[in-house]
From TrEMBL:
The protein's name in its UniProt record: 1190_t:CDS:1
Lineage of the species this protein comes from: Eukaryota, Fungi, Fungi incertae sedis, Mucoromycota, Glomeromycotina
Coiled-coil intervals: 111-148
Bilayer-spanning residue ranges: none
Keyword Transferase attributed: no
Cell location: Chromosome, Centromere, Kinetochore
Amino acid sequence: MPKQEKRQQHSQITCLNDIAIKNEIITEHFGFLPISFEEVEQGTHQVETLLENLVDKYFEQFEIYALHKIFTIRENVTVGVNFDVDESMNEGVDKEIELLRKKIMAAKAFNLKLKKQLAIDEARIEKLKRLENKISFLRTEAKAHNVSPLPDTLRFISDQLLAITKVYNNLNESVKDEKLKQYENTIDEREKFISMMVLRHGKSL
């Protein structure tokens, strides 16, 4: 047998095998063997056309419903649009908005000042609490020595100390005079004596 005939037979066998494989795949997919691929294409086209027609039909129905039911405003519905508004009214609204903006800025600035003052007051309160803890022994000593009323006594002592400080400052200014420098030592001794007497008086309280 010539080589050319063998080649033809081999190619025919290969084609038959390819067709058999394609038919087997199509049969597994569709469950039956179609008569031809043209019928498959025609059927697919018919299905696509049917789906397009159905989509177009129902979309048109939805469009008509939406335009007549959803987006249509009924005659008895009040829209609330005032067509009498002119530019002068807009100017008044702009002025009112600007005034409100200034009020808001002023309120923010005042709020910031309040926060700063609050922080200062809290620091002062904390400082006063620490001072209160330091002088809390005065209450115990006052009860032990039967000093009452304590606020009046402390106020009296404070006034006396302020008066003594004032006298001291006046004396200090006087000492600066050349004529009184000779009495500096005497004044120092008197200050020591006054300080000693004040301390004794404070301890007796």
